[in-house]
Amino acid sequence: MSMTRHAGPVATTPPAPGPKETDGRTSRRPLALRLLARPEVGVFLGAVAVYVFFLVTAPPVRDGSSMANVLYQSSTIGIMALPVALLMIGGEFDLSAGVAVVTSALTASMLSYQLTMNVWAGVVVALVVSLAIGAFNGWMLVKTGLPSFLVTLGTFLILQGVNLAVTKLVTGNVATDDISDMDGFGQARKVFASSFDVGGVQVKITVVWWLVFAALATWVLLRTRYGNWVFAVGGNKESARAVGVPVTFTKISLFMLVGFGAWFVGMHQLFTFNTVQSGEGVGQELIYIAAAVIGGCLLTGGYGSAIGPVFGAFMFGMVQQGIVYAGWNPDWFKAFLGVMLLGAVLINLWVQRTATRR
């Protein structure tokens, strides 16, 4: 007789859970490193350091009116630094931004005065001209494939010559005529160059516009599809094109945003001083680019924020006014800017390596 043995289920004990395997993609870096990897954190700390430094060394800075002057100087740089920063995140930069500001102001002034029109007509035409200059830069860039350095350097030289030649031809002088007594001047001044009282301190309206534009730019970059396009074309335009990003539209529109910024700052200058010197603006483009770089934007594109250039512009305004309030030789201003720029480039390099470290 044979016996059949039936094998029953064998009870097994599951292995004890061991340490969870991680790789460079899943491991979490310390909070401090993750914060420092944000493009605006480094410049924020730098802005605080510069503010505290002049707060100690230049007692007049502690006065409310002095801080209002610092914010005003910062705003005139910061309004232009914002679109320049967006353009840099998109992988390009504009050397014509400084003289484009003067071109806009000259257009509005001469058109209104020479044709005896309401100044708002000149303001509107100046906006069209500024947007057209930006569109031309973007169109030349995408159609020719030339670097933005060459394209905008050419535009810079063209505008510089046209500003001087046309102003002399039309007015017989290197400056435009005073338009303060023309129709619409008071209304336009309220929009672009007025002041308001805060606790007995006069604050320029450009400070408000600066913060509004910064908030809007931040929202666009972080919450809209267009913001994703900007980062994509700045990172790798061919890859962006392959996944359906409208590279041509994005590049041209970014240059047009710079044109809009040039128009706004140009209108502020016109309605603050009532007249415009045709030879001004040269060198300002470097200030705008430097404020964006100090604010965390990389020259290689694809990285940056809109908040960073706000602090970058504040550092410029703080140093520019702080040196005066401290009673130092203002010739040191450019030296301070050079030190800040080199320091920012080194910090940005370290931040980029930290952000991409696995």
Description of the molecule:
The protein is mainly α. Helix content is 68%, strand content 2%. It is built from 14 helices and 2 strands, in the order αααααααββααααααα. A two-stranded antiparallel sheet has the order 1-2. β1 (195-198) and β2 form a beta hairpin. α4 (97-114) packs antiparallel against α5, α5 packs antiparallel against α6 and α9 packs across α11 (247-273). The chain is globular and about 65 Å long. Residues 1-12 and 18-27 have low confidence and may be disordered.
Features:
disordered N terminus, 2 strands, globular, two-stranded antiparallel ribbon, mainly alpha, 358 residues, 68% helix
Layout of helices and strands:
Elements: H1 31-36, H2 41-57, H3 64-89, H4 97-114, H5 119-144, H6 148-171, H7 185-192, E1 195-198, E2 201-204, H8 205-223, H9 225-235, H10 237-242, H11 247-273, H12 284-294, H13 307-325, H14 332-356
Antiparallel strand pairs: 1-2
Helix pairs in contact: 2-13, 3-8, 3-9, 3-11, 3-12, 3-13, 4-5, 4-6, 4-11, 5-6, 5-11, 7-11, 8-9, 9-11, 12-13, 12-14, 13-14
